[in-house]
Every structure is written in C-alpha cells, then in structure tokens.
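With this grant's support, we have settled on a layout for protein records. An illustrative entry appears below exactly as we store it:
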Amino acid sequence: MRPLISVVIPAYNAVKFLSEAVASVRAQSYRPLELIIVDDGSRDGTADLIRQFVRESEAESDPARAVPVRGVFQENAGPSAARNRGVDEVKGDYLAFLDADDRWYPGKLERQWQLLERDPSVGICCCGFRIINENGAETRRTAGAPEGVLSFETLLYRNEIGSPSAVVGRTALFRQLGGFDRNLRYCEDLEFWLRFTLLSKIWNIGAPLFERREREGQATRNWRLMREGWLRVLDRMRTLAPDRVQPIEGAARALNDRYVAFLAYEAGDYKAARSLTAEAWRAAPFALLGSRHAYMTSFAALTTLLPRPLHKAIQSQVRSWREGV
C-alpha cells in the first residue's frame, strides 16, 4: 500500500478558479489522496463551492477516482494561517500544497513521490512550472531552477521554488518546523523554505509539472509589499543563520532589488524601477553580471526615459514576445 498524500488548498475568494484546481487534484495518477480545502473567510461563494466538492466526494462510487474532500472554514487570517490550518488537519505521510488558482499536471504527485521514496535525505521535492494568464491561456514563460539541491544560499538569492504549488514534502518535518509564520503576509513561503534548508534537503526536479496563474491583484505583484516582506525575512535570517547570511547579503539584496525593480516596472512605477535598478547595480555589480534578468530589467528601466510613444511601442513588442501573443 502506498502512503497517503494529503493536499492542502488555501482558498480566499477563489470561486472563479477553484474548480480547475480541484479537477487537477482529482486527475492525479497517484493514489491514495485526500484533499483539504481551507476557506479563509471568503465572501464570494467559495464556501458553498467547497461544500459541493465535499458532497461530490462522498457520492463517488469508483474507488479508483475517489479523492476524499474535507472543508475547513475559518475567519480571514491570511495564507500562512490557512496553510497551517490545513497541515493540522492532514492525515498523510506526505503533504502537498496547491494554490486555488493554479493547476497541476496529472503526473505531478507521482513523480515527486517517487523521488522522495528513493532518497530519504530529501525532505521537500519541488518542480518547475509554466505560467498561464488570468484566462488560463498558456504563455511562453516557464520558471524554476535546474535539477538539483536548492540550498539556503540559492533561495536567499532568489526564491527558485516560486510557489507553494510546486512542493511535496514529509508531513512530520513541516510540523516539526511549526509551519508558516502567520505574522508574515508576504514572502512567508520563502521564510519557511529557508528554515527548512537548515533541517533537511530540498530537491528540485526542474521539469515544469504544473501551471501557475498570473492575474491582476495578486499579492506577489505588489513591489512595495514584496520588498518589505523580503527585508523582514532577511532580518530574521540574520538572527537564525548569521554565518550563512553574512557572506552573501550584499549579493542577495542586489538580486532582490533587481527583481522588485521589474515588479515596479510592470506596475507602471517607472521612477521606482529606475531607482531600484540603479541601487541593485551599486550594491553588488558582480552579482548581476551573470544574470540575464538583470540586463533585461535594466533595459526596460532605461526605455522609460525615452519619449512615451517610443517607450510604449517597445514595451508592447517585448510583452508580445514574452507572452507568446
């Protein structure tokens, strides 16, 4: 008998996308599974949809298709609290997270479970992903690191895991670390992954095994809040692992400022994009020399100094190439 994998979906006002996420869990080749959906104080009908999924799972008569679904309902407390509540409820030896607007490919859990079974030293297995737009259409973009270990240093430079939807891990280790910090609303997943690397190994398969949706209003697209969250995480890591942070802090700050500059550019805050890009190059130029993202962000920031019609024309063309339009 293979071990149970417990899937946790935190959901807040997710009625538009949640059905696709749940369908991607039911389509997994791996069994046995259970699904816990945590409604984090939604006000858009999400709770009713979750109850529908529970009823459907109870009525399923085909054991090969059955995925028991449980709904958990709480007042709004943020993504960390919702994920932690889900972890409290799970019964499986392995644990997987899925954001309510993402979609897994059918073989995702199977492949990650196989790696975890082969190598007991790995505590978390993650993977790459493809990016879809708000309507679910594919873009040309993929994300994720090459296959191999994601170290503390790697993740402080850049959160290569990218999304909790990428992760399958050992439930006991998640509980041992006390879960996600509910006081953090931004970069809370990065803070947990960094702590996890000090306890166990994180292995990245590299291949894209799910689709991550990008849409307006996502917290991860707010450059000010993302920068503030990252700086709070950095401050915590200085205390928790000063010997690991001190040698790389300057480079890590430069790489993060580059990333935040891109978010500011995408948000139309061009002055901030230029300022953050310049700050990144001043802080640690050698850390940026090998990064194609640094050159792309620098080019984008510089084009904002051109006459508006020319800048907009360049921006439109680059976005078309990037999105595969």
